[in-house]
Structures are given as C-alpha cells and as structure tokens.
Amino acid sequence: MGLIKNKRYLSLVFFWFAVFSIGGISPHKAMAHDHGSKMGVLIVGHGYFSENAKFFGLVDEVKNRLPDYQVDSGLHMVMDMTTHKMWQTEDEAIRRLEAEKVEKVVVVPLYMNTDSSTVDVLKWTIGCRVDGEPGKSDYLGEIVDCPGEYDALNDFCEHMGAIHRRFRPFSDSQYIATNAIDYHPDVSAVLLERAQEFSTEPSNEVILLVGHGDGDDAIDQDYRDNVMAKYASDVKGMGGFHDVQYGTIREDWCDKRVNAVQEIRDKINAAVNEGHTVIWVELRIASWTNAHKQEWDPPDCEKLGTKDLLEANKYIKANYLLYKPNSLADWVVSLVNDAVANNQYVKCSESK
C-alpha cells in the first residue's frame, strides 16, 4: 500500500512539474533547433540605418529572446560602387554565420512592404541560379529577376546603389526569407505617438500618413489599400482625430512622383481650406522624404516637393518613425517561429 501511495505521489509531482514547465515557456522565444541543425537569424535593414542605433538595439533585443540562435544583422544598401567594398552588408553577415557553422538561416527583411524590390533582391541573393538565364534566381519555385541591373561578368545584381551577390557561391547554409513588416499593430501605436506629439485639438485635425511608395502601380495601390488603410483606421480610432488620410510619394520614380506629390498637396490644401490642422506623419522605418525641402515645379524632376506648403504653415511635420527596439522584436520572433516550423529552405543543387 505504501508503495502504491508513493507511486501516486511521484506521478502527481511529475504531472505538476510538466504543467509548470510548459507554462513557463515564453511565447516570444523560438522553438528548439530544427532537427539538430544549428540555426541562424539574419535581420536585414536599409543601408541608411548605419547611423541609427535603434536598428542595432532591435537586433540585440532579438538576440536576448532567441538565445539558442546565432542572430546577426546586415545592411542592405551600404556599398562603395567603385571598389565594391562592403560594410555590414548581408553577405558579410552570412560569412560570419558560416564561420559559426550555422546550417539554416531565417532572413528577416526590416522593411515596410513585402512587395518591394528590396525584398525581391534578397530573394534573388538567396535563390538558385536559373540555367540559361543567369540574371534570374529560383526562390522556392518563384522566378525572381534581378530588380536592378545584372552584371553577367561578375554575377551580381546592382540595386539602388548597392551590389548583391548570390549567397550560394560562398555558403553551404540553407536560407528562407520571411515577409517584411507590412501591417503590424506596434507600428500603429508609434504612428499615433508621432501624431499626438503635435496634436492640440484632435477633433479638428487631419493626420496625413505618407509612405515611400513603389514604382509599380499595382504594388503601390495594393499597399495603400491593404496596409496603409489599416494604419489609418487604427490611428483614427485610437486618437479621435477628425480624419486620417494617407498617400505615397513614390520619390524614386520621377514619372510617378508628379501625380503622387500632387495628390498629397491636394489633400493638404483641401483640409486647410476646410479649417483643419494637418499633421504629416511618416509611414517609414526611420528616414524622411525629401519633399519638405523641395520646391514644386512639375517639369523639373528635382523640384517635386511641398516646401512652399510647409513654409506657409499649411501642415506640421511630425517626427519620423523611430520604432522602439523592443516593439518589433515580437514580430521578428513570430516570423522566425513560423519559418522554423515550416522547415522550407532554398536548396540549390548546382555545385559552388
């Protein structure tokens, strides 16, 4: 009888130990390594993050939440176009991960829109070279063209002032890319904070969310309809503003920018004419558009801005979007968890 009681007691102890152990697992920590492989995470930011400590703060926060992973970071657009010398670029990070014997890497693009050329070029670098079409890469069955200029002699893709090489020639690791930010409620909260820094009478204020935009009409419209509209709805609901409107500048494409900036100008003038205060809030990671310091002269591609409206006090320029280092760490970890669970990585059969 005593033996039976002891067994029951030990069973209860093990049961409650298991319950508390499971309950103690943080939802913000990724699962264990994929079938024993050494796992890595590469967070890729825009090159202009080189002066932004918050980017590296985010990387450190992710490292804290993923202690079993080798977490590194790279900057997408930091390149000397004459010497091709790179500094903190994604391929240097790949070499560091390789040195740590990392076998599988989850690449997380810290960009606002998944459907953008910056994410495409990451897929291009991760993908496998297509036979007979060296300027293209096969990314898990998706054929991705070099979104810039392909250099056949050196086999690299020149995109937005940077050189990007395929990872495969110098890396035996396997890779998968996650989505960019797109919509995330943490970004809504930061946009609200930026508007409220200059808000004095919300019921009479029009918040104008302005994004970078894309050169492709369909991509630009889709982002406006399915991402920016959600942010506008969030900010209006949380802030009690008269209205929250949105638009894109499309500043890298001269032929698109004229109409895009004209739309922004029309929104500002219409709101001012109705007696509202306009607060311009950037829907960007951490950089300002040049529109505020450029004149308005549609025939001149270098003068397609809103400087005259700003100087006439027709709108208030809020601070640019600087996320808190821990605000998007949950997002990164959730994407890593999903990628590891999916266990689908690019595998190239060609020899290096």
| Order of SSEs | HEHEHEHEEEEEEEHEHEHEHEH
Radius of gyration: 24 Å
Between the first and last Cα atoms, what is the distance in angstroms? 68 Å
Strand content: 15-25%
What do you see in this structure?
This protein has 352 residues and is of the alpha/beta class. 37% of the residues lie in helices and 20% in strands. It contains nine helices and 14 strands. It has a four-stranded parallel beta sheet, sandwiched between helices. The longest helix is centred in the middle third of the chain and has 23 residues, at 217-239. It is globular, with a radius of gyration of 24 Å.
Element layout with pairings:
Blueprint: H1 2-23, E1 39-45, H2 53-65, E2 70-75, H3 90-99, E3 104-109, H4 117-126, E4 128-130, E5 133-139, E6 142-145, E7 149-151, E8 156-159, E9 162-165, E10 174-177, H5 185-196, E11 205-211, H6 217-239, E12 243-248, H7 254-273, E13 277-282, H8 307-311, E14 316-317, H9 329-342
Parallel strand pairs: 1-2, 1-3, 3-10, 11-12, 11-13, 13-14
Antiparallel strand pairs: 4-5, 5-6, 7-8, 8-9
Helix pairs in contact: 2-9, 5-6
